[in-house]
UniProtKB/TrEMBL annotation:
Part of the ABC transporter FtsEX involved in cellular division. Important for assembly or stability of the septal ring. It is found in: Cell inner membrane; Cell membrane. Homodimer. Forms a membrane-associated complex with FtsX. Keywords: ATP-binding, Cell cycle, Cell division, Cell membrane, Membrane, Nucleotide-binding. InterPro entries: AAA+_ATPase, ABC_transporter-like_ATP-bd, ABC_transporter-like_CS, ABC_transpr_LolD-like, Cell_div_FtsE, P-loop_NTPase. This is Cell division ATP-binding protein FtsE. Gene3D superfamilies: P-loop containing nucleotide triphosphate hydrolases. GO terms for molecular function: ATP binding; ATP hydrolysis activity; transmembrane transporter activity. Its main location: membrane. Belongs to the ABC transporter superfamily. The keyword Cell division applies. Residues 2-225 form the ABC transporter domain. It comes from the Bacteria.
Amino acid sequence: MIEFDRVGKSYDGREEVLSDIHFRLARGEMAFLTGHSGAGKSTLLKLMMLMERPSRGNIIVGGQHLGKILQRQIPYYRRHIGVVFQNHQLLFDRTVFANVALPLEVTGTPVKEVARRVRAALDKVGLLKKEKLNPMQLSGGEQQRIGIARAVVNKPPLLLADEPTGNLDPELSADIMHLFEQFNQVGVTVLIASHDLALISHLRHKLLTLRDGRLMVGQSTEVLA
Ligand SMILES: Nc1ncnc2c1ncn2[C@@H]1O[C@H](COP(=O)(O)OP(=O)(O)OP(=O)(O)O)[C@@H](O)[C@H]1O
């Protein structure tokens, strides 16, 4: 599903933030990406989203060589990836339903189909009853669930998350991680950047650790060992 082959990234010709990054994530696999602040976690996710281009090396996502994707093709490529951010980036001038419907409207999905899919996504995150509310009326944990519903409403085969539990207390954070696991159990490939090592150590998935620009691959249950 994801393959990084000797990828390097430097900004503005300065020292490399990522060096010689080499890893694979199989279709249907789930992994955590960790590392200290500034280690390059967001940069690695941005390379997969084509928000940044590597300085060297090759990246393949879903069978596509990212180096061959032209600038104008990027919006189409991104439709296959669901993205969840720490600050959920919801629009507070519209309802929960309208927020989750956004990715479908962009692709011109018929209205009936939009309603069906939005409700299915809200049901999966346990917030079907809140569709008419404004996101402002929801708790932080609920807002994050709305962000996740919006990320999965298109049924993307790949879900990327950047510190999705950053603002949440431990219990809510665990709930959010379990939600990602549920999507993974139905076949979605999931990669989550997080520095919440206590939480990660309780879940058994692949662990990608960035240190001094290099990547090490291990198991999340060994993270505190
Ligand atoms: N657009 C940019 N231009 C220049 N430097 C950048 C840019 N984006 C990130 N960097 C630098 O690259 C390094 C890695 O940043 P990145 O945001 O990928 O780290 P991170 O591991 O996600 O950090 P955090 O956990 O604090 O979010 C940092 O030194 C940062 O200052």
